[in-house]
TrEMBL record, chain B:
Keyword Transmembrane helix: yes
PANTHER family assigned to the protein according to its UniProt record, in alphabetical order: PAC DOMAIN-CONTAINING PROTEIN, PHYTOCHROME-LIKE PROTEIN CPH1
Top-level taxon in the UniProt lineage: Bacteria
Coiled coil regions, renumbered to chain: 205-235
Protein name: histidine kinase
UniProt keyword annotation of Disulfide bond present: no
Transmembrane annotation, as ranges: 12-32, 187-205
Reaction equations catalysed: ATP + protein L-histidine = ADP + protein N-phospho-L-histidine
Domain Histidine kinase: residue ranges: 369-596
Keywords for the protein's UniProt record, in alphabetical order: Coiled coil, Kinase, Membrane, Phosphoprotein, Transferase, Transmembrane, Transmembrane helix
EC nos: 2.7.13.3
Pfam families the record matches: CHASE3, HATPase_c, HisKA, PAS_3
Length: 150, 598
């Protein structure tokens, strides 16, 4: 587990090692003051979250296609627990299928990000999402604004 | 017409016939009594004539006798009186005959009695005269006196007989007159009888003719109906049967026999004989349905198989229902329909359907592979490219940098191709939900999505008032994305791209060219640009899969965009056309049917 000692706490659950690396590299290059915790799959993530003493993250980046607990499974579990009601969940997936977008929207994710194919774009996305005014975004949320595009 | 109608009505005719027969009987009996009366009159006249004849004979015998006596008296010749006893016998005979003739007439009979006494008296006088004439001691005086008395009695007798004869002849004349009358009456009656009988005969004959004619016509009609029914059954592969529930008697139509693979009337129509022709696996079921229905009198419907003698299996749809025939008996009528070809087609269709479903799942799997599994590594390649470009490009030679940029372009092209492939396969997929779609709203969304691209090209896009159409929203969006992207891509380098999307009325020429029955059947939306255009001869080719007109690398493309457009418009039962000329832009015409045509 790689952690950054910062004020803002970000989680990423993704089974793809390269993607995890891209993500942490992007965060590093952005030089933002935040703490990033990485999980290699859904089970890992949920095991971490059940600990009552942990400090709750601000944003959780959640991949959908993972072995064990899938992104959707995690999303459902998290949203069924009021303890995590203030955690913003950003779906982070290669898929841009309508079904996945609708399902995660219905299950209570806050934003849907299609994994970019350019590193600079990735940095842009992370910057935007981490600095997002979640309250403002969530109050005006609909299926069109749910799908994030730069 | 009315009379003809009455004539045709058998009931009325029967009543008329009965009346006529009664009348004929009455006239016949009248005729019979008349004849009988005539007969008795004739008899009466004959008797009267006989009586007269006999009386005349009597008179003549007596006259003869008197003449003979006188001749004897004068000549004293014995020969004159030789046969006097003979004459006496003759008279007795006549009297007996007369008595017999007048046995029914008392008065006349009495007259005959009196006549006999007169005759007796006369003969007594004859004998006295004869004796006087023979006696030698008698004088002529006494003889004269006797002769006088004799002739007196004779006269008396003669006048009596004449009286009787006269009376008889009067009677005869009267009877004769009567007879004439009666004869005339009888003739009239007989004539009437004949005429009436003839009339009845004629009427009956005519009626019979009419009836036979009608019967024949009805028969012909029935034959024709039967024949056409038979032909119809043969052509349509039907066969029917009937059973009288009461008598359990079956009848089969010709074609039913044929359905079973045998010649018409090949066997006695009954259940037992049909059993060998029903597929053994279906026999129990068929028998149960049939026998149950004969108890419940409920209609039946089943599918079973006939097994023909040459081993063919025929699928039969059998329906049966109950009705009452003319005499009120309960009848079950069944129709058997050969559905073998339909059944086989259905099986084939089911098989095809299975295959199609399988292909569909395959396609979906392929779609998944393309959209996710293939994009995933590609995306990573792109990511690594961007990482290398960002961090390590300083370490590369200019040649290496060029190669590297080519790798990036190629990877990007591959990504576009994958996206287009996904889009195309999505247009083929089955789940097409049609909803009212506001095209203006769709275009608005697209313009937002394509905003960067539009800004880059500094394009001017005008949108007219577009209709709301029942359509598949994501496909409509895809359609216009592709069309607008297409116009942007093929814009001229040194002039501002202008794109307009408007709704237009269908022209007469279009109606003719595209065989549109009614102008109001279709929406027509025109996407026009001022780009590089192309030769009109390519107008059909550009909608084909992987067909690209431009080979210049600056116009990158997958050859899928317009194929997707064509596919989407087809999904909406419409069609897409294009008009273009090199350097004068292109106009795409999208025709989408309204309402029910979808």
């Amino acid at each position: 587990m790689i952690t950054h000692q910062d004020s803002m706490h970000i989680l990423l659950a993704d089974d793809d090692e390269d993607d995890r690396n891209f993500f942490s590299e992007a965060i590093q290059e952005l030089r933002m003051n935040n703490k990033l915790t990485l999980f290699k799959d859904g089970n890992d993530l949920m095991d971490y979250l059940v600990h009552p003493e942990i400090k709750l993250p601000h944003v959780l980046f959640l991949d959908l296609n993972m072995p064990g607990k899938t992104g959707i499974d995690c999303l459902k579990e998290i949203r069924s627990n009021t303890r995590f009601k203030d955690v913003s969940i950003a779906i982070y997936s290669t898929s841009s299928s309508e079904k996945d977008i609708e399902d995660t929207f219905v299950e209570g994710a806050n934003i849907y990000i299609k994994k970019p194919n350019d590193f600079s774009k990735l940095k842009e996305v992370i910057k935007e999402v981490v600095n997002m005014n979640w309250q403002f975004h969530t109050s005006g949320l609909n299926i069109e604004t749910f799908f994030f595009s730069i | 017409m009315k009379i003809l109608g009455l004539y045709k009505n058998s009931q009325v005719f029967k009543i008329a016939l009965a009346i006529a027969i009664v009348v004929v009987c009455y006239i016949a009996s009248m005729f019979y009594s008349q004849m009988k009366k005539l007969d008795s009159t004739v008899e009466l006249i004959a008797k009267s004539n006989d009586t007269q004849l006999e009386l005349e004979k009597l008179l003549s015998v007596i006259s003869n006798y008197e003449t003979s006596l006188r001749s004897y008296i004068i000549t004293k010749d014995e020969t004159y009186i030789e046969d006097r006893f003979l004459s006496r016998g003759k008279i007795e005979e006549s009297i007996t005959k007369l008595k017999l003739l007048t046995v029914n007439d008392t008065a006349r009979n009495n007259d005959i009695g009196r006549l006999k006494k007169l005759i007796d008296l006369r003969f007594k006088l004859f004998r006295k005269t004869l004796l006087l004439a023979k006696s030698k001691n008698s004088g002529p005086l006494a003889l004269n006196e006797m002769l006088l008395e004799s002739s007196h009695v004779t006269e008396m007798m003669k006048s009596f007989v004449t009286k009787i004869i006269f009376s008889e002849s009067t009677k005869t004349e009267f009877e004769n007159n009567n007879h004439q009358f009666e004869l005339q009456d009888s003739i009239i009656t007989a004539f009437l009888l004949v005429i009436l009988s003839l009339l009845i005969l004629l009427l009956s004959f005519q009626k019979m003719n009419v009836d036979i004619d009608e019967l024949k016509k009805a028969n012909d009609q029935l034959k024709l109906v039967n024949e056409s029914y038979n032909t119809a059954e043969m052509t349509a592969g039907f066969g029917h049967w009937m059973v009288n529930v009461g008598t359990n008697k079956y009848t089969f139509s010709d074609n039913l026999f044929r359905l079973m693979g045998v010649e018409p009337n090949a066997f006695e129509p009954n259940i037992e004989n049909v059993i060998p022709y029903i597929h053994p696996d279906d026999l129990e079921y068929v028998a149960k349905v049939h026998t149950d229905s004969l108890v419940s009198h409920q209609s039946t419907s089943m599918i079973f198989r006939f097994l023909t003698p040459n081993g063919d299996v025929k699928y039969i749809m059998g329906v049966g229902s109950f009705t009452k025939n003319g005499s009120g008996d309960l009848i079950k009528i069944g129709v058997n329909y050969d559905i073998t070809s339909q059944y086989k087609k259905t099986l084939e269709l089911e098989e095809n359907n299975k295959e199609l479903k399988y292909i569909n799942t395959e396609l979906e799997a392929f779609n998944n592979i393309v959209s996710h599994d293939l994009q995933e590594p590609l995306r990573k390649i792109q990511m690594f490219i961007s990482r290398l470009e960002g961090k390590e490009s300083d370490l590369l030679s200019s040649q290496g940098k060029e190669y590297f940029s080519k790798i990036r372009v190629t990877a990007n092209r591959m990504q576009t191709l994958l996206i287009d492939l996904v889009n195309y396969s999505r247009t083929i997929k089955g789940d097409k939900v049609f909803v009212e779609t506001n095209f203006n709203k769709v275009i608005e969304e697209i313009l937002q999505d394509l905003a960067t691209n539009i800004e880059d090209k500094k394009a001017i896009i005008t949108i007219g008032n577009l209709p709301t159409i029942k359509a598949i929203p994501f496909q409509v969006k895809q359609l216009f994305i592709n069309l607008i992207s297409n116009s942007l891509k093929y814009s001229k380098e040194n002039s501002t791209p202008e794109i307009s999307i408007t709704s237009k009325k269908i022209t007469e020429k279009e109606m003719h060219d595209y065989k549109i029955a009614n102008k109001k059947d279709y929406h027509k939306i025109v996407i026009a640009d001022n780009g590089i255009g192309f030769k009109q001869e390519y107008s059909d080719k550009i909608f084909l899969l992987f067909k690209r007109l431009e080979t210049d690398p600056k116009y990158s493309g997958t050859g899928l965009g317009l194929a997707i457009c064509s596919r989407i418009v087809e999904n909406h039962k419409g069609f897409i056309k294009v008009k273009s000329k090199p350097n004068f832009g292109a106009k795409f015409y999208v025709f989408i049917p309204k309402g029910d045509l979808l």
